[in-house]
Amino acid sequence: MSVLRTIRVATRGSRLALAQTEWVVARLREAHPGLDFQVVTLRTAGDRTQRAGIPLSRVGGKGLFTRELEEALLDGRVDLAVHSLKDLPSDLPSGLTLGCVPPREDPRDALLSPDGRGLRDLAPGTRVGTSSLRRTAQLRRLRPDLELAPVRGNVDTRLRKLATGQYGALVMAAAGLHRLGLRDRISAYLAPEECLPAAGQGALGIEVRDGDEAILALLRPLHDPVTAAAVRAERAFLARLTEELEGRGPVPGDPAAGVPGQAPPLSGTCQVPVAAHAALDGDRLHLHGLVALPDGSRVVKAAGDGPADAPEQLGRAVAETVLRTGGRQMLRQAHGLAGEEGESP
Ligand SMILES: NCc1[nH]cc(CCC(=O)O)c1CC(=O)O
Questions:
Q1: What single-letter DSSP state applies at residue 119?
Q2: Which residue numbers delimit the Porphobilinogen deaminase C-terminal domain (predicted)?
Q3: What are the pLDDT digits (tens) for 236-253?
Q4: Which atom of ligand 1 approaches the CA of 158 most closely?
């Protein structure tokens, strides 16, 4: 690369987002010692509502943590945006693309409890803080005797709420804790069979302008094809379910289908627990997918495997199985419930 200019990298301002972005920028500086990288911190709608204390599961709307970064990309104010991949909706705005997917951190959810207990050892009635319907729905089935309560705020805020006894335990993404050097706070890891992670959990997504070849070339050394194959399958699963939720039919082979900004306000998977996790075994990709009702009263799971070089096909096939075996009906039901509760943004 001989572009002698400053590359601007957009991020949210949370401690985790900054740590993730610093990691990316350090790799970029290593790979391109002659270039200048500048971190640009932007505030997203998700950061504003966190302050207002609205439970995340009630905020709704896609791209809560990503839209302002995408606008900066489209305006040319920044050249790339670093996201937690799971916060990035499966249908990106036109003009933007996923430029690279770096190696994944631990995709599992983690349990934190002051005395180091695992999920099975928590006392009945323990108040467990989780920030997602996906975790709540799955934990309800494993331990119906626990009190599951929403918890808001960044990682430090949540840890303080645990330390002060507002919660008896927390469940959050292991990846965030690992990246913040807080690995020692984790009491137990939840196996994907117990609590299937969110699509893309533990992975970063670096979003760029479609066709910005200079930037795409810069990112190539950071790309991890194994992670990319797994998260493409997970996101294709999510994309197919999102289409269903939005009343769109399947769009074969086009995971980027969708019209940004035109989704009905109750759509999106914020209100519907959806989980997906894929892993590579040799040259085969294995995918597990799940849809649940928010109260955990029903869960539909499916699994499949396919060639690693066709992840979208696998994701859509597993989604079709979920839809066919009860998932379609559940999405409609959960969608209706969200509407009754007035969960629109
Ligand atoms: N906005 C929630 C969010 N987005 C990314 C992470 C952690 C990192 C990851 O899952 O990759 C978290 C916190 C959590 O789920 O506990």
A1: G
A2: 266-323
A3: 999 999 898 877 655 444
A4: 16
